[in-house]
Description:
Helix 5 runs parallel beside helix 19 (620-640), helix 7 crosses helix 12 (430-438) and helix 8 (282-293) runs antiparallel to helix 13. By secondary structure, the protein is an alpha+beta fold. The chain contains 19 helices and 23 strands. Strand 3 (28-31) and strand 4 form a beta hairpin. The strands form 6 sheets. Strands 2-3-4-1-7-8-9 form a 7-stranded mixed beta sheet, sandwiched between helices.
Amino acid sequence: MILCVAEKPTVGQYIASVLGATTRHDGYMEGNGYWVSWTFGHLCGLKDPNEYQEAWKQWNLSSLPMMPERFGIKLMADKGIQKQFGIIQSLMAQATEVINCGDAGQEGELIQRWVYQKAGCKVPVRRLWVSSLTEEAIREGFKQLKDQSEYQHLYEAGLMRAIGDWLLGMNATRAYTIRYAQGAGQNRQVLSIGRVQTPTLALIVRRQQEIEHFVPRTYWELKTKYRDTLFNAQLPAEEGEYAINTLEYGQTLVDSIQDQPFTITSVEKKKGVEYAPRLFDLTSLQVECNKKFSFSADETLKLIQSLYEKRITTYPRVDTTFLPDDIYPKVPATLAGIKEYYPQVTPLLSLKADGKKTAGSLPKSKKVFDNKKVTDHHAIIPTGQRPDNLTADERKVFNLIALRFIAAFYPDCEVSNTTVLATVPLNGSEAATKLSIMGSGLDGGIPFKTTGREVLKPGWREVFADTDKSTALIGGRTGVEATVKDTLEGEEEVKVLPTFVKGESGPHVPQLQEKTTQPPKYYTEATLLRAMETAGKTVDNEELRDAMKENGIGRPSTRAAIIEKLYQRKYVEKKGKSLHATPLGIELIHTIISPLLKSAELTGLWEKKLREIERGEFTAQQFLEELKTMTQQVVYEVKTNKAGMLCPVCRQGKIIRGNTRYGCSRWREGCGYSDPF
């Protein structure tokens, strides 16, 4: 018999139905030469410190750093898990072959390998690798099973991630808790520190401090209205300064052009195209769902995971927005599968997937199909299965995915971008004379500019048109509508300009607008996810963001869990959509003396190395040695830094650091503790 092991009961049972294993047993299905069983996620994990050495059971600085010579795994202490493991172990002992049907990713590979190791698997293991759970995909996957050895680098990357989190998390958490936490014994507050969690918290704390310490500045902008169109003055400004920093200077500018004619000096029109929004990867889907529906990252992950398990969408834990070439011939069938719910599909149904750039061909853009930008899985798209029996929230998520997929095969949106320049000469007033004396460089007049855009052919925008006729009836007969309004990220209202002619002139109305500089905004889950993706750097350009993904904090599949941990540990709280660090979270970041633990950039570099391990470009042993060195450094810094400790003399104050020596915070009260360093 061949044993197949899936990651969840629902997935295992569907695979069993495809294979013809229809006889139900406790914990597995049987039939047609197969046993199909399943895990419940993590059945096994790394051992606790005391399972390596008895001395590590106690939290003592002297026992740190804890570095096992060889890491071991254990079965989770849960009766349901232990029972299911026993079933798998028994079947594995009788099987002639095992097929790993776990989640097709780094974490899924690790979960399965640990179970096989713990169960003492001695038979050959092959791997099922699919990007969707449709019957067609599963049957095709079983025809292309590969030996487990081909996924060894993937397993090593997952293993190093787990070991890295253990080494840094266990040692840093114990070191900082022992040295700095309040309370004692069981009442001692644990200062939880993690390889990804702590740099993420540091991002939130840093942004919050920027907001709290922000000092607003007032400045002014000179504008003028000509033919009901607002033009902006193009004034020189010193580096780091605004063009108009005082009301007096602004009023001088206004007075110097009063009653002077406004003359158009240039009208430039450029035709261009706007491409359809990219298909979704997990992070961009979480960002969009947070913006549109206020779903948390964790909620979105659960919803898209459910859609995947219902075979409605493809594999969700992906970090690419591209599709491989072999998906292109399948697109017509996928579109046909959702046509009942999306009238926007109708114009595409008559097109052929032949790759030709002709009127009757389905478009095949490099911005959608690019083998070089697809790794283990492709972007999240519909599978073509009917989107029936979905919850209201699942419908919302599926609607976003389906509309982007449809839009990818519509023509580009054609636009006309217009730039209009103008000038107003200085009058002979006292204000104009004052400008000349000031050396403003405006003797030739004040230049103005405005821009506008006109949509010539909407193309893919028709998919997102906000009309009664263009709503997506998700679930059809249920009558639940998911509107398509506001489906595009960062959209602004299109400004269409009147027709201007070079040389035309006329009256205008200058005005001075007072402005105030604004502090940075608090992170939302959407903006935090983007910051984690780019290791804290603000990047709007999608191509540049793609290039930085390898250096992001965490993986798409783990970021939601990291944010949830920050909530659970009460380091971060939500106020509306905004994320605020709690006093506990702020204190933790201030307590951590090691910049390594708070560095988003360094954590991003580790993530890059984990990906290199996955590709076979960096060895697991090298990564482990680097982690051990860093862990030793973190522990050493805590051990040798006395700041924050209870004063050994008065037992009331805390040790503070001076220029050359440590002292007690109660030195004003007469405590004479002093210790050079």
